[in-house]
Structures are given as structure tokens and as C-alpha cells.
Amino acid sequence: MSFSLSEGNDTIIALATPQGVGAIAVIRLSGKDAIKLCNEVFFGKNLEKQESHTIHFGTIRDGEKIIDEVLVSLFIAPKSFTKENVVEISTHGSSYIINQVIKLFLKKGARPAKPGEFTQRAFLNGQFDLAQAEAVADLIHADSESSHQAALSQMRGGFSSEIQQLREKLIHFASMIELELDFGEEDVEFASRTELQELVERLLRVIEELILSFDLGNVIKNGVPTVIAGKPNAGKSTLLNALLNEEKAIVSDIAGTTRDFIEDEINLGGVIFRFIDTAGLRETTDTIEAIGVSRTQEKMKTASLILYLFDLGDTDLIEINRDVNKLENLGVPFLKIANKIDKANSELVSELQSKHPDTIFISAGKKENLEELKARILELVNLDKFKTGNTIVTNVRHYDSLIKTRDSLLDILKGIDDQITNDFVAMDIRRSLHYLGEITGEITTDDLLANIFSKFCIGK
């Protein structure tokens, strides 16, 4: 999706509510002529003489034909989302009515909005920066309390404010270095190298903290891929069903019933966990089951959390120790879950409590101790930093720019240590400013904007 100046003068139209039949639908127009076009087909009040942020009842007509009774909301520039004239028409939710109204406006000179074009216009008109614009899409797709809070904080400028402060401090030093270059023949120093080094080191500490926050941010935004692993008949499918409170997975006494992934989501403490029930881990001659076991092992390597489940009535400490060692070598956080406590050998329970005191004892079939299990799962997702209001990076594009910024800042420090000339120091500073500017939109390209806004829904 490209955006030209001429297109920016057009009046665009789109359905702002989801497709399908509902009680009402909202059709949105934005552009210099949005109110004028609406006034041509609206019978009620003269919309061009009404104040901003007012709602008016009337009918939309195509000539003498009444299409629908509607409510028209007016937002006069610059007091609107796009900073243009915006009209929102609330119609009845019939797909026929929606199509007739949109066709009428297209005939009058409006054009269909592209995906994300309303938000893109808001960005181009200075309503907010690029990071805040991206947060609009995240807010729409937020499906948990934590992802909603992260998106809302970013949309309100929390992340942008921190980046902007860093950038302004660096711009000051860049201007001082550039000034020194203008006096190249004279021995003058407008920018203290010691102060520049201290600033860059402070920036690096902040940048590094933002980079480290991405792991948490990614969890908040996309959910935690959590693999339920263990031997066949350990109760993995039963545990999945118990956690989901529905019969999602087939449960059978026959070993090897689950041969591929069964996946579903659950919201724990405001965080989405994507639980994946996998094929049982064992040696097998069954070709199909062997493929499932191989896929399980691959899935475990890429998981953010593993729930290692074992049957207290069908295992021993030697086997458990062997499996725990394998899991420790994977380097993925995991919980040791002893299932079927009602069938447990008391000696094995005592050994586990002594050798593996962090073991969680449950009965998936009887849904015993599941609340303790959920609490332990949440402990491994450290939300304390997020809950204190610290800035969290959730966008992979921002993460990539922060990595490049960090590398450029490290080059500045190396240049200062090596006593390189001012023009090279200035080059490294400009590079750092460029990558920081990419995050908030001071530095953009048509391709970048097209890529970002094409992922939005039409009407936003």
C-alpha cells in the first residue's frame, strides 16, 4: 500500500464495524469533503452548519429513495482521529443497507479506504507517532489484560516518550560535534568527549533494558507457547482437558493415542498461554507415532515453557532423573508435575519430595491441585516489571531498531577510545539517531509505512 499527496486529499470510506449482520453498523468517512458529501445525501439538519462532536438523526436517501434511518456523528478537523473532517454513520446492521450506503458515497466521489488508511492519515497528520499508530492495531487485537495494558500504554506514548527523550539528548551532542566540524581549522571543543561518553553509557543502559524487556513483551503480546510432555498415558491429554475445562483432547488407556499436536489457549492471570498436548515420548516401531514423537522433541526445543508430566503409578526415580537431565540440557524453563497422586507409591513420593522438592503433585483426572499448578506456571512468567509500569517492548520492528541503535552507540564509545576524528564520531551518532527515529517515525520510507499499515483491518 502506497500513499501519495493526492490520495491524502481524497475522502475515504469504509465499514468500521465487523462484517456480518448485527444490530447496527458504523460507516466511517474521512477527508476534506466528508461532511459535504454526507450532507448531500442526509435529510435532517444541514450538517455543514453543525458543531463538531455532535450527533444528528435523519435519513440517508438516494434521490427520493430512503435507504435507512441513521445517526450521523460529526468530527470537524482538526478535532478528529485523522485530524481531517470525519463522519461516522450509524445504520442498521443489514448487509444490504451497508452496501447501499457505501455505494451511494462512492457514486458521490468518495473512494474505498485501504487497510489501515484512517490510522495512516492520523500518523501523517501528526496525531501521533509511528509507534503509537502500531499500538492501535495491537489494542484492537489484544486478547488479555496484559496485552491490552501494554498496547494502551504504548498508544498513549509511554514507549515513544522514552525513545524521544533519548533521541533529543543525542541530537544535542550531534549538533555540537557538527559545529566543531565547521571550525575544523581551529582547536575548539564544543562537545566534551567525557560528557558524550557518559551520555552514551546512560543511553546504552536504557536501550539494553528495553531490549531485555522484549522477551516479556513478546509473551504479553503473543502468548506463552507451553508444551505438555511426558511418556504415553502420563495424563497429558487429561491435563489439557482439565486446564481448558472441556474435552478438547481424546483420552484413552491405549498408549500412543495422541500422535500429533492438540493446541488451545487459556488465560491465566491476564496472560495467554498456548498449551500444546504432544505425542508421548517413548521408543516406538509405529511409523506414525514415531513421527509424532520426533515432532514433540522439536516442539520442546522451541517452547517457552515445558510441563513435564509423569505418572506416579508407572515410573521410578531413575527414569524421572534421566528425563529431568534431558530437560535441563534443553535450556527451556520447565515444571515437574507428578500426576495420579491417588495411585502414588508413598516411597516414590517421599523420594521426590527429598530429591525434587519443587515437584507439583496433582490428579489431572480428579482436577486436584490444578490451582497450585496454575500459580506455579504464572511464577515463571515474571510480570512484576510490567505491573510496575516500566516500558515494555512488544514489537519486533522496535526490537530490531533498538539492537541496531545499541550497536551504533557501542561504535561511538569505541571511536572515543580510539580517538577517531570528529567526522567519524558524527557519522556514528547520526546512525544511532537514524535507528531511534525509525521507531517513532521521524525516519520512514514508503515501503515501511506500506508494510505496517497493510496489516491493519479496513476501517481503522
UniProtKB/TrEMBL annotation:
Binding locations of K(+): N233, S252, I254, T257
Keywords on record: Cytoplasm, GTP-binding, Hydrolase, Magnesium, Metal-binding, Nucleotide-binding, Potassium, tRNA processing
Family matches, as Gene3D superfamilies: P-loop containing nucleotide triphosphate hydrolases (3.40.50.300), Probable tRNA modification gtpase trme, domain 1 (3.30.1360.120), tRNA modification GTPase MnmE domain 2 (1.20.120.430)
Named cofactor requirement(s): K(+)
Chain positions recorded as GTP binding sites: 233-238, 252-258, 277-280
Subcellular location(s) of the protein: Cytoplasm
UniProt cross-references to InterPro entries, sorted A to Z: G_TrmE (IPR031168), GTP-bd (IPR006073), GTP-bd_TrmE_N (IPR018948), GTPase_MnmE (IPR004520), MnmE_dom2 (IPR027368), MnmE_helical (IPR025867), P-loop_NTPase (IPR027417), Small_GTP-bd (IPR005225)
UniProt cofactor note: Binds 1 potassium ion per subunit.
One cellular-component annotation, GO: cytosol
Signal peptide (residue range): none
A Pfam entry, by short name: MnmE_helical
UniProt EC number: 3.6.-.-
HAMAP family: GTPase_MnmE
PANTHER family in the cross-refs: TRNA MODIFICATION GTPASE GTPBP3, TRNA MODIFICATION GTPASE GTPBP3, MITOCHONDRIAL
Protein family membership: Belongs to the TRAFAC class TrmE-Era-EngA-EngB-Septin-like GTPase superfamily. TrmE GTPase family.
Subunit structure of this chain's protein: Homodimer. Heterotetramer of two MnmE and two MnmG subunits.
Name this protein carries in UniProt: tRNA modification GTPase MnmE
